[in-house]
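Marked as duplicate of an earlier ticket. Keeping the data here for the record.
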Amino acid sequence: MDAASEALKKHREWQGKLETVNKMPIETADDLSIAYTPGVAAPCLEIARDPSLSYVYTGRGHTIAVISDGSAVLGLGNIGPEAGMPVMEGKCVLFKALSGLDAVPLVLDTQDTDRLVDVISALAPSFGGINLEDIAAPRCFEVERRLKEQLDIPVFHDDQHGTAIVVSAALENALKLAKKENPRIVINGAGSAGCAIARLLLDRGQKDVILVDRQGILTPDMELTSGQRALIDRLNPSGRTGTLQDALAGADVLIGVSAGHIVSQDMIRSMNEKPIVFAMANPTPEIEPEDAAAAGAYISGTGRSDHPNQINNLLAFPGIFKGALDAGATEINDAMKQAAVSAISSCIPEEDLRPDHIIVSALTPGVADRVARAVAQAAVQSGVVRHA
């Protein structure tokens, strides 16, 4: 199948992947009186008395806003809000299909940090959670940080944290299978996803993580973004310098969130025994899985659905938001992210792990529910719920 041609055909046919469906009939005068005036005044007054009742009398408690400024759409870059809308609609479809949550796509015609924060904050009373999507680094860090400070609903930049959660789950299983302890992990790509992956791996106890970007191995003397600067003292404990090639010599793991076809077979050959290669650039991975395997990769993963070991945040965000909303969480904190990692990795029993099967498919029934239960429990235990 030619996915691009078929997608153009279907998107033209669909004219949008979402529609509004009423939960109640509007056929009689009584129907109108209950759903609209005069009856609707009763829930309005109850909510005016206690705004938290908006979670009882409206769809807020099961509705997510999927919001982008169009500045970092998939692997396409800064293509603008209108061009990002098909992705936001697609994300909403996935929310509904995998978690049962409703979601609304919103693209904003600004890439100014202050204005993004102001607009999204003003929209918050309509939603139970905010999924930030395809916002470029370093702006995404600041937007998320400020929104989390201002709002009492979950705010989650999926490109950062969803990616980090699924990578961590896949790597946990891969390291078990390869019987690697204290691995040296190289992350190529030091934007929002790369920084979030590094932070979560360090928080989960990894000691030797190297972050690489176009400048090479990141070191404290370089010009760094705010996200990179916040991590730099925890990275690269052996003080390595140089290029990606230098970083990979003797490394155990490569995690790529960068650009297509920038890793050579010689680089893979230079890695430690049984190298683990997660080449996740989309749509073209840093190295093709078959080329990595030919160069000696023990385990390969990509972000694509047409290769084994698809490492995709689709495994994370539906269940994370479902769990957060089920628990009445006011945020998605580190404990909830850690719970999601463990829930995803445990979907495959250790005895069933294989080099081509270290992460469960996002379409496996029950995955989102499993993640949701773990996340909800972590929310309650960490005390970030509006109601128990």
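See parent ticket for discussion. DSSP finds 16 helices and ten strands in the chain.
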